[in-house]
Amino acid sequence: GQNIDQPTEMTATEGAIVQINCTYQTSGFNGLFWYQQHAGEAPTFLSYNVLDGLEEKGRFSSFLSRSKGYSYLLLKELQMKDSASYLCAVRDRLGGGSQGNLIFGKGTKLSVKP
Amino acid sequence: GAVVSQHPSRVICKSGTSVKIECRSLDFQATTMFWYRQFPKQSLMLMATSNEGSKATYEQGVEKDKFLINHASLTLSTLTVTSAHPEDSSFYICSARVGGGDFYEQYFGPGTRLTVT
Description:
The complex is a heterodimer.
Chain A: E1 3-5, E2 9-13, E3 18-25, E4 32-37, E5 44-49, E6 53-57, E7 60-65, E8 70-75, E9 84-92, E10 101-104, E11 108-113
Parallel strand pairs in A: 2-11
Antiparallel strand pairs in A: 1-3, 3-8, 4-5, 4-9, 6-7, 7-8, 9-10, 9-11
Chain B: E1 4-7, E2 10-13, E3 19-25, E4 32-38, E5 45-51, E6 57-58, E7 67-73, E8 76-81, E9 90-98, E10 105-108, E11 112-116
Parallel strand pairs in B: 2-11
Antiparallel strand pairs in B: 1-3, 3-8, 4-5, 4-9, 5-6, 7-8, 9-10, 9-11
């Protein structure tokens, strides 16, 4: 079956660093995505990993290990506006045409406190 | 670029009525759009993949006769919830595919909050 696990909630302090982990078991793999979603709004794209290693984009970095079925999103220099849910999503090669569909985790609600 | 809009943003309807939700790609053409549903504190669940000019592909467990999808043009896909019931109350989000090959991005619309009373 398809399964994506991430912590339900996390709390961190403004200015700090936080790491949100994601583990996945899917029947296929064609990339892992991280999205940010503020309450009542649609997700916005943060990062994409298809090869092992670290992708850095400003204050956000994402890491992937395909052999371990593991990814993390690292947020540095946290700001209050980073309070949101962070969704881990895996593109499964099966279904939805040759390139697969996005399978989402339930999201990690991050609260940034002063 | 790559802006996706949805209309309406919120809708309240009575049980038994039908509701149409529009999804538009504003500055690009989208041959493929996706419709998701998200219940509170749950993940986004793909309902169907909509391809311009052809029938939508529905995920297992999604009733195609209840959730009618029409992708009549390269910039517009519509989802009609027919004979809505309170259990259909949810956050409906569309996304449009940008790019092709091994990597493509999905840009999401702002979502539609449906409440069925």
